[in-house]
Design goal:
elongated, mainly alpha, 96% helix
Length: 78
Amino acid sequence: MRSHSNEQLEASKDLTINERNIEDLVNTVSQFSDQAIENSRVAVDKSVELVKEYPVHAAIGAGVLGFMVGMISKKILR
């Protein structure tokens, strides 16, 4: 009988450790998510500043990029 309750105690310890690990994992993922959101905001702000500073260059670059994507997709879809 005692060995059965020891097994239950060990099993409950394992569950507690797993719950702690899950909490740590959730916190870590949440921190990475927050950092990714902040990094993307910074990148968008820099992109907007660049487009405001060089609108003609940005339009030409977007046109060239669109042309290249169109050519590549045309060759792939053939």
